[in-house]
Specification:
Blueprint: H1 2-12, E1 21-25, E2 30-31, H2 35-58, H3 61-67, H4 71-75, H5 81-114, H6 122-149, H7 156-175, H8 186-200, E3 212-217, E4 224-225, H9 234-257, H10 273-289, H11 303-315, H12 320-335, H13 338-343, H14 345-348, H15 353-356, H16 362-365, H17 369-373, H18 378-396, H19 398-407, H20 410-434, H21 438-453, H22 469-505, H23 511-517
Parallel strand pairs: 2-4
Antiparallel strand pairs: 1-3
Length: about 525
């Protein structure tokens, strides 16, 4: 699915002249779709996007080894901490490079499809890949292992902190002229593009800031010019080498912080025979005083009790800082002006990410699925998780809803409520389908960045201020129906499997007599 999304991005990021929008905007002009232009575009855009959703996709591989009881086996082998951490970082880097190479091939195909320049120059594609993508993705791979071993950064705090780092590095790469902070290689490429555009168009100054990355609607055909690529001088190459050294340093730091799957040690005690006898006597006396409460059968399954239990499980384990951030966001939403609230609404939709991502897959993560199947029907469990996720979303955004109500902005309340129903439904359906939190975290971060942050039409699930609520109401019902269908299919498979096992275990006619005769 990730590779499919990658191929779609390769199509969407290279709009035709008649599509009415641009992704890389330089004062209303762009370069001809040749190998130099598209090679630089794929290096910049793919690196930024991979940093955003690739981190959440591969950030917990070490924790997965511990959860799957592989950690103790690895700890007993001769492999050193540095070897293990380095291999984890390098394997993540290989995954990133596979996605990057697929996107490069997609851009080559789009160059032929757009037909503005049919000559494929492999060097024009692979030089930006070598000097921009590889150092940046090495640094990203190092962050995936650091955040998985650094104390306190495995949960929601680490997710928010990394997003802040991504925002900081994006701003520094786009607006800072110092190439040492240009992690994504954007400044080095767009500066050269702007200088070439200024040579062809008089209304563009060579000294002004370069292009911008995002969704820019345009009218008519976009003027084009021919760009011949970046001159990769020694200064630029030195700055890229610094980021490779930074990645190696982070991996070394992570290996020092790695606890090698250590578990809490219990004090070793030696029991003497006399103590054992005394303990047994005490245990017998205590057993006599035990009175177990009678079991009361309740044929009705109360949905309200299930929702209450799911709410308690969802918010259990959250750190003090998470509660403090939620409380602070609620207070700020009530105090700041309405115009400022709308500008930072997307940030508010990041706080419940850790809660949404566990919907539909928590029982598989903790291997309690069989226990839950015997406690209540599947649909009751499904709807209790769904309602609890919606209630958590509405609770966290209650300050915004109250402010909208006081201002009389009922259209905003309606749009926000639609988004509050859509996101938990998406999380529950994807979690139920994949039995993992990865796909939702990746898709949500990508949808969140393209929609509410960049306000791309039809991707803004909050509907403020564009308003595509009808689309997301329909998607909510479709996702809910898919989730319910999955519950029925799994229940049918479970019943069919148990029936087959019962038939296989039953003896055939004359089987016992044949055994006795032998």
């Amino acid at each position: 699915m990730i590779l499919g999304i990658t191929l779609f991005l390769g199509y969407a990021l290279i709009p035709a002249a008649s599509d009415g929008y641009e992704v890389f905007y330089i004062k209303g002009v762009r370069g001809i779709y040749n190998s130099y232009w598209l090679g630089a575009m794929v290096a910049m855009l793919s690196t930024m996007l991979l940093w955003l959703f690739g981190f959440y996709m591969l950030r917990s591989k070490i924790s997965e080894d511990q959860r799957l009881k592989m950690g103790q086996i690895i700890a007993s082998t001769p492999i050193r901490n540095l070897q293990y951490i380095s291999s984890r970082a390098f394997s993540n880097f290989c995954v990133f490079m596979i996605i990057e190479l697929v996107l490069v091939v997609a851009f080559m195909g789009m160059q032929l499809l757009r037909g503005e320049d049919l000559h494929i120059n492999l060097a024009a594609y692979f030089l930006p890949l070598l000097f921009v993508s590889i150092p940046s993705l090495l640094l990203l791979s190092a962050f995936t292992v650091l955040f998985d071993v650094f104390p306190g950064l495995k949960g929601a705090v680490g997710n928010v902190l990394f997003f802040v780092i991504w925002i900081f590095l994006s701003v520094m790469s786009i607006s800072n002229s110092n190439s040492l902070w240009d992690v994504f290689g954007i400044n080095a490429i767009q500066t050269d593009m702007t200088k070439e555009a200024a040579a062809h168009f008089d209304f563009i100054s060579a000294n002004e800031v370069g292009g911008s990355i995002g969704y820019y609607p345009i009218e008519g055909r976009t003027p084009t010019f021919e760009w011949s690529g970046v001159d990769w001088n020694s200064h630029l190459l030195t700055s890229r080498l610094i980021w490779i050294l930074a990645a190696l340093s982070i991996v070394l730091l992570a290996s020092q912080l790695f606890h090698r799957f250590a578990v809490s040690k219990t004090p070793f005690t030696v029991k003497l025979p006399v103590q054992d006898k005394m303990n047994k006597v005490v245990e017998r006396e205590e057993r006599k005083s035990y009175q177990l409460s009678p079991v009361k059968k309740d044929k009705r399954v109360r949905l309200s009790r299930l929702v209450k239990a799911e709410l308690r499980i969802m918010i259990k384990g959250m750190s003090f800082w998470w509660y403090l951030l939620v409380l602070g966001s609620m207070m700020i939403s009530l105090l700041v002006p309405l115009a400022q609230i709308i500008s930072w609404l997307p940030a508010l939709m990041l706080w419940p990410l850790a809660i949404w991502s566990q919907m539909g897959n928590r029982e598989f993560y903790y291997s309690t699925n069989e226990l839950l199947l015997s406690s209540c029907p599947r649909l009751y469990k499904f709807f209790s998780v769904w309602i609890a996720g919606i209630l958590v979303t509405l609770l966290i955004s209650s300050g915004v809803l109250i402010h909208f109500f006081l201002e009389g902005e009922f259209t905003y309340i309606y749009s926000w409520a639609v988004g509050s129903f859509f996101v938990p439904t998406l999380a529950l359906t994807l979690g139920t389908l994949t039995r993992s939190r990865k796909l939702f975290e990746v898709l949500y971060m990508l949808l969140w960045y393209l929609g509410p942050v960049n306000d791309i039409p039809y991707l803004n699930f909050l509907g403020i201020p564009t308003g595509h609520s009808a689309l997301y109401i329909m998607l909510t019902f479709v996702l809910l129906g898919v989730g319910i269908l999955i519950q029925y299919v799994r229940e049918w498979n479970l019943l069919a499997g148990s029936k087959n096992n019962t038939q296989m275990n039953q003896p055939t006619k004359g089987e016992y007599h044949g055994k006795l005769e032998k």
